[in-house]
Amino acid sequence: TDTWKLDNPGRAADLHAMLAEAGLSTAQLEVDALREGADTLAARIAAVAASGKQALVVDAETRQDLLTLAQVTTQMSEALFWVGSGGLAREIAGLAGLFDARAAAQTQCASQPRDENAPVLILVGSLSAVSDRQCAMLRERAGMAELTVPPAMLRDAERHPDWPAWRARIGEVIATRADLLLRIGRDDAFDPAEGALLSTALAALVEPHFGALGGLIATGGETARAMLSAVGVGSVELIAEIEAGVAVGKPVDARASQPHLRIVTKAGAFGTDHALFAAWRYLRETPATSAVAGIGSNGSNGSNGAHGSHDPA
To answer: What is the DSSP letter of 61?
Structure first.
């Protein structure tokens, strides 16, 4: 895909090869294994686990395949760790009974008042064409302020002479309680490998002003992770899905001053052109008491995935 080519030029998109590079031994389960019956599937997965293999790559073609995989693996006694895809996360989240207790807790939390006028920050670290189109629609329809931070300044971070001015500029917009679209720019020195570095610097610029926010929309996984890490948010509890793969949640460990902060995350080169605008409108127009419609999944909706956990960032 274009996303893969942007972030991994020249690398083959092969799960087994990538997991092997990380030092993990792998096994493969073909799609036919998902259609042999629940008991047979469970036995085959258990056999792989017993063999010492550390990662099982499962092929799936349909939503029913993913549902079968979800139903079987959530009932197994082996300790499994689900990894992708968004389609698998959706089927796991939809299983009856798994999230009833959390849904009740979400309803209780969401019923508490929050500051409806606190600003929303839209943080865009992705440089994909998809993100460009989403930002263009957001600007056109929401009419909000936009700042594009030069990557040269972010590379030097606090050492750059313009760092204090940029931090102050961001703070001035947020202090007016206006929503802000904040993006990482691109220059001739761009290198896909520096994404985490630039995102970490961008998060450091925002961090002193984060306490004033009522909502965060972060697109680009590295950007979301960097921002939440900078403010001490280690996990996000998903409470709804705005559109396929665009999840909204609340921080499990929010600062005392931000108990009602809502966070939307999505992959950078993902979603419809409408995705950022829809996320912004959701945070602006949906009362906190309505933000418990269900548990969504974030990431690719593709069917090819391996067992592992869903990371909202």
So the answer is: -
